[in-house]
Structures are given as structure tokens and as C-alpha cells.
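sorry for the late reply, my laptop died twice this morning and i had to redo everyting from scratch. anyway the thing you sent over, i finally got around to it. pasting the sequence first so we're on the same page, its 225 residues, then the predicted structure underneath. double check i copied it right bc i was rushing
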Amino acid sequence: MSSTKFKGYFITIEGGEGSGKSTLLNQLGDYFRNKGFEVIQTREPGGTKLGESIRHLLLNHEDSISIGHQAELLLFLAARAQHVEELIQPALKAGKIVLCDRFNDSTIAYQGAARGLNAKKIQDFCQLVCAEILPDWTLFLDVSPKIGLARTQKIQKDHAQMGQLDRIESEKIEFHERVRQAFLSLVQQEPQRIYRIDANESQSKVLQKALEFLEEQWSGSELKT
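ok and here's the structure:
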């Protein structure tokens, strides 16, 4: 099956720390490629050399560098602007499926709800840097912050040692609870785009739920097995 038969699709995966986003991203990437589609897997911040540099700065737990809330927001947005222009937009124009670990919803949840910055301004900023490139569908992996943070300590990460939490993961549990509640609120606001999946389920069950939702949304049923 050729991806040139339809326009590109932009699918984002959202969730708190340790919710299993990277695992689902890889599973979906393999699934779509096996179906004959061209797939781009990427993440935020990241996806470009500039984005990966900003990612290291934002997540690295280095006490000598202080990052204020406004600066944090603008760094995330700078990485996203480059990401959209350099990678996401060209891939979609080429008819590819773009799978992205985090996007605007994370900015609204983390920098808006959890950091207490102005939500309306954040939404305006996101629209400005995205050049009207918005997700077709979003999979929200919902897990208790306590469970998710415990999982992260068992994962080998590129910005922290095994067992070490990065700068954002190290925030107090109340911060992560606000993040989760913000995501749940977004699900209620945009139920047709955002689909909540219980991330306490097994990886295979999470994948099954994700595919069921995407198959239902896909107008031409190309994803059907």
C-alpha cells in the first residue's frame, strides 16, 4: 500500500512522565511501515539539531543553570518552530505519517497548568510557531504520576543516568498531578481529536486501543487489518 494515495497525517502521543509514549511511538511506527506507509518518528523538544540541543538544555539536571518559567516556555517554542519548519511540515507535504512524542498539548499542560503561566497566551504562541500545522489525532496515555515517575527511574535516558530523574521529572508530585488534570481537561475539550488510553494496561493492550481509535478515525479505512 502506498502512502502517496493520501495526504500526510500528523499523530501525536501525549502523557505524563513514564506513561509509555516512546514505546507506543515505536510500536505504531513499526505497524505503519509494515502496512506500506512512509513514517517519520520524532519527539519534542527535538527532531532537529537545534531541537535536540534545546532538549539537552531543558532536561539536563544541572544546578549551575537556572531556567525561569518564561524562558522555559520560549525554549520549548523555539524548538517547536524549528521542528515544524524543518521536519514536520515537509514530511506532511510529502504524504508521510508523522508520529510525534509530545506537541502543543504538553506545553499547555506543563507550562500552562503546572507552571501557572497564562493559558490563552500559550495557546496563541503555539499557534504562531506551528504555522497551522496541528495534530490530526492525539493519543493521551493516562497514568498516575506516582506510577509514572517510578517507571522513569528504570529507564535509561539520554539526558540522565539510570535511576536519575531529569529537571522536569524532579518537580514535586503536585506539579505532575496538575499536568495530568490539564491533559484530562484537554480530552474533555477536544474528544474527537484526543483519545484517552489507560496506560496502566499492558503495552499490547495500549497498542490495541490506539489502533482501534485510529482505525475508527481514518476516513478511508487504510489502517484496517
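The beta strands are 9-15, 39-43, 97-101, 137-142, 194-198.
thats about all i looked at so far, will dig more tmrw
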